[in-house]
Amino acid sequence: MNDHIHLAAEYDQNPSRELPHSVEAEQAILGGLLNEPRAWVRVSDLVVESDFFRADHRLIFKAIARLLEEGRALDVVTAQEALDRAGDLSNAGGLAYLKELSDNTPSVANIASFARVVSERSQFRKIIGVCGEIEQSASSPNGRTAEDLVHDAESKMLSVAGQRPKEGGPVGIDTLLRKAVEKIESAHESGLESLGQSTGFVDLDSKLSLLRPADLVIVAGRPSMGKTTFAMNIVEEAVLRSEKVVVVYSMEMPGDALLTRMLSSMGSIDQSRVRSGKLLNEDWTKLTKAANALNKNDRFFIDDTPALSPSEMRSRTRRLRRVHGEIGLIMVDYLQLMQIPGYGGLNRTNEISAISRSLKALAKEFDCPVIALSQLNRSVEQRKDKRPVNSDLRESGAIEQDADVILFVYRDEVYNPDSRFAGTAEIIIGKQREGPTGFVRLGFEGRYTRFVNLMPGTHDFTDQEMGVEMIDPHSRLGRMPVQKLAEEASKKVEGKGRGRRRKGSRKPP
Q1: What is the pLDDT of residues 321-346, one digit of tens each?
Q2: Which of 95, 190, 318, 330 has the most C-beta neighbours closer than 10 Å?
Q3: Where is the composition biased (Basic residues) (predicted)?
Q4: Of 253-257, 299-303, 488-492, which range is least confident?
Q5: CA distance 116 to 493
């Protein structure tokens, strides 16, 4: 491979400053593919044409990729013909250079490692380029503020990060089944807490099996239903029970207003007295206790910057993780108040779709639940039964598709003051990717800005009115209790390889 180094001076770019690159690694990839086209599957996910530093190498890789992706034969001759047809043969070094690449690459054993080297050097060059743009912008801001430049710099760096090769790929059933069984056994041994974040509401936790890591949870409702109160009650539970960072992005209410609500809820203090400051003597003790509970571990943050973009939210959350540790829960109030630069309101539906996808990506990146509040269409008001359904979500298509869980907050007394269900709310499960739909009934204490569990003996509602599921007489494996599910899964793992079941012996579910 060292025989090729003499060609670097002729083809390398920017001689005034040596940029990170590896001529040898690039040549090893190209020569390896010319000799062994089947090695394409080992590098196609790791490098792209623009990752190659030298212009001739980019042309050769482009020709090779086109031939292989079209299912055509690849060798020195077919590569020469492809380059010639594209008018790139002379710029790629001609047939002589293709032969040289092939002759000096005896093996493809390390071709994936070479691809990672080329990809990494490409990332280094992109970072250098972005830093140069940032330096130039700071030297000539053209009326932009320092804050504008910081956001621009973060966006550019995040763009570079997004161009990295994606990790992962197909995983065998043995590995997946082992992980699934371990998770089920953990849930059996330690209870639901091992599965995710509690909402603080017993019946809802039971139906959802908690809020799972990487889940996008949409909470929606018409005005005055209490969707912000409900979401903040879940935030309170996370702040009190979790050692991880909890962050709220509030684009509707100021941070101090949210804290006032939380103090009222956690301290059982009438919110009107908290807002006005006309506290009773006993209120001060409750207020102090609630404030200390919120501030116990410096892990709770509220960002009330208006109209945040997904990239800004991601970069701010990354900074929080870097400084304060793992993220446990993110709450966004509310989705339709986010904006993406460049859309300018021209196509709001597409913009909401992009925002929805970004929130799901946020949940996956930080491996935590993301609770995003959403508005409902006004058409709900025109129906006799005003309980919301998934199609009532404003710009609903993408939101419904991206969400793992959709919860609607519905209080019948808002429409019917004399309702039998006054002082309560239905939390309607409109979608649950890994579980049933339905609803649970909670108590609503408006003066304390909180929802509460309805304990047995405190109400006269029927099981049906409480949202209790009827027992299915034909239960399947997926509906078994956690302990039984763990036992069944363990049997499958232990029984693997004992001999195949005879054809036709499988019983219907």
Answers
A1: 988 999 999 999 888 888 876 665 55
A2: 330
A3: 498-509
A4: 488-492
A5: 36
Has residue 61 been placed in a domain?
yes
Say if residue 494's pLDDT is above 70: no
**Closest to 248 in 3D by CA, of 406, 374, 371:** 371
CA distance 317 to 312: 9
Question: How far does Cα 445 stand from its chain's mean position?
Answer: 33
Domain CATH code at residue 321:
3.40.50.300
Which residues are 438's β-sheet partners? 429
Distance (Å, rounded) from C-alpha 215 to C-alpha 364?
A: 7
Residue 150 lies in a domain: no
Residue 381 lies in a domain: yes
Integer CA distances (angstroms), 452 to 91, 268, 307, 405, 440, in order:
73, 12, 32, 21, 12
Kindly report, residue by residue over 427-442, the tens digit of the pLDDT.
999 999 888 888 899 9
Which has the higher per-residue pLDDT, 277 or 475? Answer: 277
Q: Do 299 and 403 belong together in one domain?
A: yes
Pairing of strands 327-333, 300-303: unpaired
For CA atoms 266, 267, 271, 275, the dihedral sign is: negative
CATH of the domain at 8: 1.10.860.10
The answer to whether the beta carbons of residues 327 and 321 sit under 8 Å apart is yes
Q: Are residues 333 and 458 in the same domain?
A: yes
81-93 mean pLDDT? 92
Range of the domain at 6: 2-124
Provide the sign of the torsion angle of the four alpha carbons 315, 316, 318, 322, taken in this order: positive
Instruction: Supply the pTM of this predicted model.
Output: 0.63
Residues 252 and 400 in one domain: yes
**Could you tell me if 322 and 433 lie in one domain?**
yes
Q: What is the pLDDT of residues 440-469, one digit of tens each?
A: 999 999 889 999 998 887 777 777 878 776
**Cβ atoms of 350 and 343 closer than 8 Å:** yes
Q: What is the tally of structural domains in the chain?
A: 2
Same domain, 441 and 333: yes
Give residue for tokens 């034909």.
474
Cα of first residue to Cα of last residue in the chain, in angstroms, is: 61
User: Per the structure block, which two tokens stand in for 494?
Assistant: 């232990």
